[in-house]
User: Fold these one by one.
Assistant:
Number 1:
Amino acid sequence: MAISQTSAQPLASTADIAVSVRNISKKYNQTEALRDLSLDFPKGELTSLLGPSGCGKTTLLKIIAGLLDANSGTVQVGGQTISGPGPDRAFVFQDFALMPWANVIRNVAFGLELRGIAKSEREAIAEKYIASVGLTGFEKSFPHELSGGMRQRVGLARALSVDAQVLLLDEPFSAVDEQTRRKFQEDLLSLVQNENKTFIFVTHSIEEAVYVSDQIAILLPRPSRVSEIIRPSSFRGKSVDNIRRDPEYLDIVDQIWASLRSYVE
Amino acid sequence: MKYRSVILKIMSAVIVFSAWEIAGRVPISYSFPTFLESMAALAVITLDGSIFIAYAETLKPLVTGIAISGLLGIGIGLWVGLSEKFEWLFAPIFIVMQAAPLAALIPLLVMIYGIGLTSKVFVVCIMAMPVIVLNTASAVRNTPVSLKEMARSFLAKDHEVLLKVIIPAASPIIFSGLRLGVSAGFIGAILSELKITPTGVGDIITFSRSIADYPTMYAAIFSIILLAVLFLNLLEKLENYLFEGNNRGYISD
């Protein structure tokens, strides 16, 4: 019994890894952005990439997305080595990346449009996700008629509508105001609980990372490597109202700041 | 409130035409007719049909030239914008074309292509094409990177990135190039009829000037401006129809 359990352990843990980054290196001309970086992203969890600016966290995210090629190393998504963008991943952009000439429903359905899904079908799916991010009634609006927070909801609905297993979020809340950001963070937590998807979340906010993450990877710059992986344990099951006063939350925030402080100019 | 822009447009037309009328009555020059005289002359050449015969002639180089400039200009512009090599190859030609003193070059064109339609189409193209090419190229080159990445991350193929993202994103500047190009093309068409052989509207202008029938001369000039404005409005309607969300209002009409 005990033997079979221990031997089953590593198998179970590889099956629980949604994205696996192995020995990634990336150079921009002479600048070394990432060196020999390895990191695992557990299935169904939210992992934050946190670090000072210029530490290559967005670069890593774009390599996972298949938008950038690494100089060496591999990225596996669901056990398959990737060679470019794929249907298993969807991206949420820092600047929203909405098409200004297209209305909300076309923007949300754009990923499905590129997959060749018929118009009526993709609009039905898009409507469902527009409703789920709370934008019902804005289907025919254009991006310039929406507030920043609403625009990012459109970006989120677009990423959700292609039903990818892995969601890649590149500082998605950095361009929205503080109050909207708090609402987004709470929504993100319930999304992680309900959607059973894997989230990879780039942020420069320590509080935000600790608040939303199941796992926090601290990256240190020049060249980037993973210096620490933190897994908050005690407050994740609690209600969203109590997280920010949890002693563990406060300790982790302090601990991360202590290790990042010397890297911030 | 809904009619405010219409009222403003009418008011601006009334102001311009009143100024014209007053300037003609002062008169600032004996060769400058009043607005009403010019409109009367316009009515005469409209009623006797001579203006339609003239436009049948003028529209040939104009429409051909603008169609070539529009299609070829946007095509070359996309190419130049997408590929750095083609920028080196083509952009200097169009920059030179744009800066060239065209009136001085017309004799050269006539020597090569004769006095027929070909030379006139060339004049229209030389006037219209550079701004279309250069605007299109710079718009394509400045497509927001995140929009292209967005399309690629949602599995767009290269031609889909071009058709669904790059061209729509570039469309406001492509269309502003088209507007400038089309206006320049109208100037080119009249220039060619004044400088190469007097035909069509250019003939009305040249002939009525030679017999000192200034109202008719200004009526012809007025009609070509009117046609250009109508055409530009049509172009804007087309743009709004194609790329609705890009429309934040223009003032060309």
Number 2:
Amino acid sequence: MLFTATYIIYSVAVILYLVYFSSQNKQVRLAARRILTSAGLCHLGLLILRYVEAGHTPLTTHHDTVSFFALSMTGAFLAFRWRYKVKNFGTFVSVVILALMTVALFSSRNLYPLPPALQSSWLLVHASIAILANGFLALGFCGGVMYLIQDHELKKKRFTLFYHRLPSLESLDQLTQHCLSIGLPLLTLGIITGSLWAKQAWGSYWHWDPKETWSLITWFLYAGLLHQRLAIGWRGKRSAIMSVIGFLAVLFTLWGVNFLLPGVHTYVR
Amino acid sequence: MKKKKNSIWMFFASVKLALFVLFILAAASIIGTIVPQIGTFVPQDSILEHYKQFYGAILNGLGLHSAQATTVITKISDLLSFDDMYSSWWFNGLLGLLSINLIVCSIERLPDVWRLVVMDNHQTKISRLQSMRNTLELTSSDPAPQTTAALQQRLAAIGWPASQSSRDDGHLLFSQKTPWSRLGVYVVHLSILVIFAGAAVGFFYGQKGGINLPETLSSDKVYQYGSGDEIDLGFTIKCNWFTMTRYPNGAPKEYQSELVIIDNDKEVLTKVIEVNHPLSYKGWTFYQSSYESHKKYIISVANQTTDVQELFLAPIREPVRWQDEKLLFAITDLIPTTTPMIYQYKLMVADGKGGQQLLILDDNKQGTLIRPDGNAYDFQVKEFFSTGLQVAKDPGVWIVYIGCGLMLAGLGVAFFMSHRRLWLFISEKEGKTTILIAGTANKNKPGFEQEFAKINEALTQAQSIEVQK
């Protein structure tokens, strides 16, 4: 019930953001932001109820994981916008949030009792940090996509729908950089807390389990991206492409590993 | 003493190499997640089978079916040990290359960065200040020395304590924040090396093994993973009991083993372990990892009056005799309960001369039976298990954790702190005091722009100072 309600509020926010995108009416943007904030608060309430219902940190099913991913994105975006007033960022972000919520909508909401390995307070710490990292990296992805669209518009020299609605390449580059500078430390913390937990539960801090390995692959990619920026000055397009590729690795860590590759994380249904 | 910059040195110091290694590592790691690895989670046989199927599928996909092609591919994958990739020579070679790259690049860059950390910023040329991104010119009606003193006080009040130097043409105030934050990225580099060092210590001095220890039995050996070689613990580990509980739907809820450490014939430690709660002794850690069922049952019987107790082990429908008490009993049936895999036990008790009695017992719960002769006995039945223990000794783990801590600290500094510098040059020109404010930050430049504006706002609040038009 509450999930459906939250979903509807998100949908309204997306519609308003799309209306704002085409009309550029400031009143509409304000309304869109308020609705998105309400959706986020509703979502937070949902999370708390789900915690009570499950009796443990509700991050062990596919539905809950993706739903929290969406909430992380909402939170990260709302925390960000005060400092970075990037034109029409909200439109792109809200569409991705709704896409995640749609995936959650269609996944089973059944709860399963916690298997022994997951009965630890690390579940809360590790899983929430790891998914929160995804939220920030997803914002970086949105920034990267906007950069590539804008770059494409500039190259075409035919300034149509997007050109006037997207911020400058420089501010998009800065935005992406900033998302990563929070996302990467969180990803690192996610991997480290996972290692500490793995040591406690399975006797070794690293197993080269597919989930671990893919999170490390993601880490390598983002570390590469940073060096590309910091040390070589390949800012701009290559960074944008890398932030998209990095995010694809994030998604593969989340979905590809669970559905295609067997390993110790497979009990997350 | 400048190091001779030969081309090999520069190659290992280059960021391009770092990028290359990072991307190759990322790509190579993928192989190991697709090709099944020899490991602890999947039995060896099924890996080999999977392995054959995997290459078969690739070959079919490529339209190659010949046995020759299979042999070639198998040889390549053997040479590159794709099935044990993360311990292969080439993957670890890549990690080694990354380490060399990290070391050489840090040695190459650190001296310059260090110079920036400790440099005397009072030597900065005024022309350089003027060309900085953040500058502001102010005038003051007070003479230069007073203005300088007032500004210094004000700077201190807003958290920018400044040092002063005088030169021919005026006074310079300089203040900076977190110059050492420039070192953050090198702390991250170091942390990776520390983690690698910890992993190496674990590899050379650590041991990993396991043992299936039947309840009530003990062992002073465990068996190494992979080879199955015996490892001497130097003490004895005993399993008093193992139990598992289940959720109403039959899913495992908890595995528990009571372990006893016996060292020099003395019981030194007793602890109930479960998943996530291991036991550590003398560098060894025992983890609850699995269990094995033997299709046998432990029947515990106690005479209530004499308090004599005995344990018996028996499969289903096999009669057991307790000679001293002249008792004959057997588990005749398992009765399913509402919880899948949890049973009640039907226990038939006799004395060989008739007098049969039936007792229904819940799993691992005590039940009392009064015999026709008046003696009362407590019976308890549970399934007989071996507890599956994972046993590990890793003296490198603390080094790895220190590396992780360093990495987090380094990342925090590298991403969230910047070296911010602020200069105020106060000079007198044609009887007027002018103030040049200049500032730089090595990171987060938009953030510093705002901070610079705030500082200026605070400085211009003094009555005698105004912004030069």
